Amino acid sequence: MSETIAEILKAYRGGAATPADIVARSYARIRAHDDPAMFIALRDENAVAAEAAALKGADQSLPLYGIPIAVKDNIDVAGMPTTVACPAFAYRAEADATAVARLRAAGALILGKLNLDQFATGLVGTRSPYGTPRNLFDARLIPGGSSSGSGVAVGAGIVPLTLGTDTAGSGRVPAAFNNIVGLKPSVGLVSTFGVIPACRTLDCVTVFTLTVDDAMTALTVMAGPDDADPYSRPRRAGAAAPPQHMRLGVPPPGQRQFFGDKASAAAYDAALTKLAALGGKIAEVDFEPFYETARLLYDGPWVAERYVIAKDLLAKSPEAILPVTRGIIEAGRDLKTVDAFAAFYRLEELRRIRDRVFRSIDALVVPTAPSTYTIADVLAEPVELNNRLGTYTNFVNLLDLCGLAVPAAIGANGLPFGITLLAPGGEDAKLVSFGRQFEAATGLPLGALRARQ
Fold first, then answer.
1. What pLDDT, on a 0 to 100 scale, did the predictor assign at position 421?
2. For labelling, which of 204, 265, 333, 404 has a CA lying 20 to 30 Å from the CA of 417?
3. Residue 438, Cβ neighbours under 10 Å: how many?
4. For 187-213, what is the mean pLDDT?
5. Cα distance between residue 390 and residue 123, in whole Å
């Protein structure tokens, strides 16, 4: 049965399926999967089926004609509640977020709103009063966050496309843990109007799919400036063709951080070998400036942006926010202006270092996550283990890089491992093109359903 966007569209064109068939299949899979923590709100099946039936007279050349999708619950969908996984914050959206509206105009059918780490603060997927979505490969493990439901829904084959968001890695870590693709666009390429931000100056709307091509299809639909979003930029996704021999920067062995996870370290080495076989020229680069940038995200003034969003609720009902989330957000309340400017100055210096690094390489290649952890471990050490997951993700938006997370291996332990390609903002298409080559070379199954076939 068709799984990817491309396969579903082919089935429609060949008369092998209709949008109503695919919608019915999605709802049947939701029931069969039986994970009440995946969705926060689900639309009535009959209402979506009626929308699918109404597509009969629509143009089948629409890029997302009849494609069922689901949306992270910090992104507005008209008529549905937006909760950011905090019931006391919830409101009913009057209009679609710009990204959602553009997907809908391209033929997409929206099934519902997906679970997340509260206020999109976390990379673990355990920080929600709505529960922890079930890891598809081992129920003891975390699903990744903050776009936890978004990653699981694609990996489980519920829908071929979900939206997430990314400030510190939320559009990439769940992709690695669910054996799927996560595309984090250049900052400003996709409008964030109608998105409840974590850090408004850094946030991106992201895409989860089973294939690189599907991710690019969704990005092409959503990309473009938006007058309603002051952080939207008229930037392009860049040239589609990468250089014949991509120059790929990697941390030297002495700077690689896997926190004792030998399986992940070995999988990363194997992925670099595959990239070299594709013509990639592997070059070691000093990674300390990237690690320093990563530390700025939570040790610097950007945590104050999280406080801006939640301050009214904190003042009125602090108990409505989960303790670990509240502790992180409240840290932004007392930041000093002088320290903020010192961090801004240092970030600009680090961006100049970024520029020098990318004069000698085309992209960085990093592990998407250095390891994974059990739910029990994360609940026991919620901050330290979450910070470890951001080792290779926290610096990306601060340095205005785009990223493509792709599956790299299914280990002997049955768990997936992924890598992320990173390039300067505006070079999304180059990453996609090279990522497509890597995807074809690995020949990996997609998501969890195909991994078990």
1. 98
2. 204
3. 23
4. 97
5. 7
Torsion of CA 433, 437, 443, 449, to 10 degrees: -10
Contact 147, 174 (CB under 8 A): yes
The answer to whether the CB of 415 falls within 8 A of the CB of 137 is yes
Please check whether residue 112 is in contact with residue 55, taking contact to mean a CB–CB distance below 8 angstroms. Answer: no
Give the containing element (helix H, strand E) for 68. strand 68-72
Q: How far is CA 40 from the centre of its chain?
A: 18
User: What one-character DSSP code corresponds to residue 406?
Assistant: E
125 dihedral zone (left: phi>0; alpha: psi -120 to 50; beta): left
The alpha carbon of residue 214 and the mean position of all alpha carbons in its chain are separated, in whole angstroms, by 14
Q: What is the pTM of this model?
A: 0.96
Q: Which of 362, 2, 9 is nearest to 218 (CA)?
A: 9
Judge contact between 298 and 394, C-beta under 8 A. Answer: yes
Closest listed residue to residue 9, CA positions, set 178, 236, 211, 184: 211
Q: Which residues contact 368 (CB under 8 A, 6 or more apart)?
A: 172, 173, 175, 176, 182, 392, 393, 405, 418, 419, 420
Q: Helix, strand or coil for residue 270?
A: helix
Q: Hey, what are 58's tokens? A: 């629509």
pLDDT digits (tens, 9 = 90+) for 122-140: 999 999 999 999 999 999 9
The Cα–Cα gap between 389 and 134 comes to 18
Binning the chain into helix, strand and coil, the percentages to the nearest 5 are: 40, 15, 40
What CA–CA distance (Å, rounded) separates 423 from 4?
Answer: 26
Helix-helix angle 45-54:19-33, to 10 degrees: 160
Q: Which residues are catalytic?
A: 72, 146, 170
Alpha helices by DSSP H, 43-199: 45-54, 98-105, 148-155, 173-178
Q: What are phi and psi of 168, to 5 degrees?
A: -125, 5
What burial letters (b/e) apply to 425-437, b meaning 16+ CB within 10 Å?
bbbbbbbbbbbbb
C-alpha distance from residue 95 to each of 72, 115, 203, 439 (Å): 15, 20, 20, 37
Q: Which amino acid, one-letter code, is at 188? A: G
Instruction: State in Å, rounded, how far the first CA of the chain is from the last one.
Output: 12
Q: What confidence tens digit (pLDDT) does each residue in 324-342 have?
A: 999 999 999 988 899 999 9
Answer whether residue 241 shows pLDDT above 80. no
> Residue 449 corresponds to which amino acid?
L
Q: Left (φ > 0), alpha (ψ -120 to 50) or beta: where does 260 sit?
A: left
Q: Which amino acid is at 9?
A: L
- The DSSP bridge partners found for residue 112 are 42
Please, which residues have CB within 8 angstroms of residue 277's CB and are 6 or more apart in sequence? 441
The candidate with the shortest Cα–Cα distance to 203, out of 142, 121, 125, is 121
